[in-house]
# Entry
Amino acid sequence: MDYYEILGVGKDATKDEIKKAFRQKARQYHPDVNKAADAAEKFKEIGKAYETLSDDNKRQIYDRYGEDGLSNAGFNPNSFDINDIDLSDIFSSFFGGFGGFSSSYERNPDAPVRGEDLRLDIEIDFLEACFGTEKEIKIRHLEPCEACNSTGMQKDAKDTVCPMCNGAGRVQKSTQTLLGSFTSVTTCPNCHGTGKNPKAFCKICNGLGAVEKEKKLTIKIPHGVEHGSKMRVAHEGNAGRNGGRSGDLYVVVHTKQSKEFIRQGFDIFTELIISTPQAVLGDEIKVKTIHGETIAKIPPGVQNDDRVTLKGQGVPYLGSDSQKGNHYITIKVAIPKKLSQSEEKLYRELLLLSKQQEKESLLDRMKSALHK
# Structure
């Protein structure tokens, strides 16, 4: 299932183009409009596609690794809920001016309302981001009120309906003008749109149907997670109202920098200082990687800023247990500023030998030119 094909957009589509495509598809396949047997399933696919492609972080992971990558990053691509879509947002722009069609989509005060999403920022170590970890976190969120069974009303209350709007949550006012009767609809000022009698509200939650509580959670951070990644913990946001499902908790991961390693994607970069003889003759040197110590083979004649590659010694790929990035070592050749007498003698001998080789090479080129 390709999310881009579902929405009918290209992989370079902008956020506005994705949103526009989603609105059009949602209007076409919403079960309240389209009575085809597969409309609900298609609408759900459209919602899943939009939920992923409208989020920069999810879209980046999906483009690289598909739905499996989303699952390994802590996102559940199958968690889309039709009730998460604001119907007024979909339909108002298309039907708002046509004979009251939009009125059938006005919110019912007793309709289920999804709870709000929450965000929590956490910081983890560099190697924890590379190899994954588990973290215990504390959150404060709204949970269903036990005193009123999350209804928001006193259990023994009799007059639970707002007397001003008779439970509609809105009041209608008609005014006579020269052009005829003008009718306006506004939110009920007595119940603030709930349709319920404020005098019968639960004393514990004050009519909200939920109370704030602290909760401990253990979350699993997958290997390969990058700085700034968002992880979705389903249903750990605020409680919904009128039986609506809870919102989600989004955990934003911040990674501490390493003093030894630089990370780019799934590759690791370090520098290695070697001596001039090592650069000339080559060597085998013990180096540190995120996986531990290993031997780096320095080829003879290596130049300053050349790179040596340690394949498979980088960060494990997100969504894969076998693939890893590489570790790239940038070579820095150290030129000595001070020499001992014996070292200076050797370098002078090398210099004389180098000059002698240059003369011999020049003579060879001259002889070759004469023979031609």
Observations:
- The helical segments are 3-7, 15-29, 39-53, 56-72, 87-95, 126-131, 276-281, 341-371.
- The chain has five domains: 1-106, 110-146+208-257, 153-201, 262-335, 346-372.
- The CA atoms of residues 74 and 263 lie 21 Å apart.
